[in-house]
UniProtKB/TrEMBL annotation:
InterPro entries: Alkaline_phosphatase_core_sf (IPR017850), Phosphodiest/P_Trfase (IPR002591). Transmembrane segments: none annotated. It comes from the Bacteria. It comes from Nonomuraea terrae. This is Alkaline phosphatase family protein. One of its GO terms (molecular function) is hydrolase activity. Pfam families: Phosphodiest.
Length: 370
């Protein structure tokens, strides 16, 4: 088990360090060197262990100096983007999973797609109220720009974690590199984030290490090389990821397992990081059943045990506690706990993430300076 290294080497420590490198009065936990302009290349699903396994398909990245960070828990896009967008741990920003219970409603909320049952409205600024690092950068005179697909502009997740950026929509890899170079040259101090999600998307459907995934890895490597080649003087490029990935070798259908569903009101999270919300009075029974059924397959703990173990950070705000399941089940090895009738596409995945294994937690932080 890899417990995230909050406060010394996690994704939550990176945003403040980037702002400190740009001259803002922020904690420089990662001791990054000063720069006039910073470009963060965020590659969805580029785990450090995965990258090390295939240096031949990423020769540029393989040669870069860098270090390894931990993603945070759960090791999933929603949580990691929130940590990168706020500089806070999951326990502080409250985005503690993919599918979370909305307290008092009896419903689950998808924090990635920002979807909820009819009639339930979740305001991004209320669900994640903390100021973003981009707002802080703009107040200090640093132009924050986010380069990503047009479809994400104005989405609920973007509003929750990227408030304060100027969104530069770009679709192809070449377009994103070009928009990043333009943004870096626009002002004397700049903070530019470039997002690329296709590596993760392909990994889910075909598995990491597949031919299709390796093709995407080569595209990522080319993007990083071109981003570096076009950096203005006095700039720093950092390449990182939101999480890694594992390929499933065993899938457990929770919906077809009465012992897993008895006493359960809502089953949230995702296949490698389940939030299990119990019916009133059933939390102890549900905990015992999940522990017994998933023995030697998953770490299964109570909400309080997960909080006390620091999975979500040194502190969890009281307001966010009920977003965490009464039981938190975290598979290891190649196990995935799926819900095929409710989420059929996810159940067909090959690649998954969310857990506390090294393959999912470890992400690279690679650096190029001019």
């Amino acid at each position: 088990m890899i417990v995230p290294g909050y406060g010394g080497g996690s994704l939550a420590d990176l945003p403040g360090s980037l702002l400190a490198a740009l001259g803002l009065r922020e904690p420089n936990t990662l001791a990054l060197e000063p720069a006039d302009r910073v470009c963060l290349f965020l590659v969805d699903g580029l785990g450090a262990e995965l990258l090390r396994a295939h240096p031949g398909h990423a020769p540029f990245l393989a040669e870069l100096a860098g270090r390894t960070l931990t993603a945070g828990f759960p090791s999933t896009t929603v949580t990691s983007l929130s940590s990168l967008g706020t500089g806070l741990t999951p326990g502080e920003h409250g985005m503690v999973g993919l599918m979370l219970a909305v307290p008092g409603t009896g419903h689950l909320f998808n924090c990635l797609r920002w979807t909820a049952p009819d009639g339930l409205v979740v305001q991004p600024e209320q669900w994640q109220p903390a100021a973003t690092v981009y707002e802080r950068a703009a107040q200090a005179g640093v132009q924050p720009v986010y380069v990503g697909p047009a479809a994400f502009e104005g989405s609920g997740l973007t509003r929750a974690v990227y408030r304060g950026v100027r969104y530069a929509a770009a679709e192809s890899a070449d377009e994103r590199v070009a928009r990043a170079h333009e943004a870096l040259r626009e002002s004397r101090r700049a903070h530019v984030t470039v997002y690329y999600g296709d590596l993760d998307a392909v990994g889910h459907m075909t598995g990491w290490g597949s031919d299709e995934w390796l093709q995407q890895l080569s595209i990522v490597d080319g993007m990083a090389r071109r981003l570096a080649e076009g950096l203005p003087p006095g700039s720093a490029l950092y390449v990182t990821a939101d999480h890694g990935m594992v390929n499933a070798t065993e899938k457990i259908d929770a919906e077809s397992s009465p012992e897993l569903m008895e006493g359960v009101a809502l089953l949230g999270g995702e296949a490698r990081a389940r939030h299990v919300y119990a019916r009133p009075g059933a939390a102890k029974q549900v905990l015992e059943a999940w522990r017994e059924t998933l023995r030697d397959k998953a770490w299964v703990v109570s909400r309080q045990e997960a909080v006390d173990s620091g999975w979500f950070g040194p502190r969890v705000r009281d307001a966010w506690l009920e977003r965490i399941g009464d039981v938190v089940a975290v598979p290891y090895g190649g196990v995935a706990v799926t819900t095929p009738s409710r989420h059929p596409i996810e159940a067909r995945f090959i690649g998954y993430h969310g857990s506390l294994t090294a393959a999912e937690q470890h992400v690279p932080l690679l650096e190029v300076r001019t």
